Amino acid sequence: MKSASIPSLSVDPELRAAAESVLKEGETVSAFVKSSLRAQIHYRRTQEQFIARGLAAMDEEKRTGVYYDSEDVLGMLTAKLVKAKASGQK
């Protein structure tokens, strides 16, 4: 795949210094920025998917009239956890 460039980024000296202060050994600011960009893309896609699932669940609740409140959901999850622990699963 051919490489593409992202526009250069102008930052104040304090932000650059903060970035440099958290670099791992051998890591460059460029690699840090690239990693941060990937992480932010993943985060935003995950957030969009979460919101879409929530809106779909809301539509399903309106359509069917079936609704699970937080206590119901936590109870179901707790029961699953207890069952998994009892069977030795992680």
Characterization of this structure:
The chain has helices at 13-21, 29-64, 70-86. With 90 residues, the chain is mainly alpha-helical. The chain has one domain (13-86). It is elongated and about 55 Å long. This is YlcI/YnfO family protein.
In short, what is this structure?
This is YlcI/YnfO family protein. The protein is mainly alpha-helical and 90 residues long.
For the termini, the CA-CA separation is 39 Å
Strand residues, percent: under 5%
> From the alpha-carbon coordinates, what is the Rg to the nearest angstrom?
22 Å
Secondary structure: helix percent: 55-70%
Count of domains: 1
Strand segment tally: 0
Can you count the helices? 3
User: What is the structural class?
Assistant: mainly alpha
Basic shape:
elongated
Please give the largest β-sheet.
none
Topology:
Layout lengths: L12 H9 L7 H36 L5 H17 L4
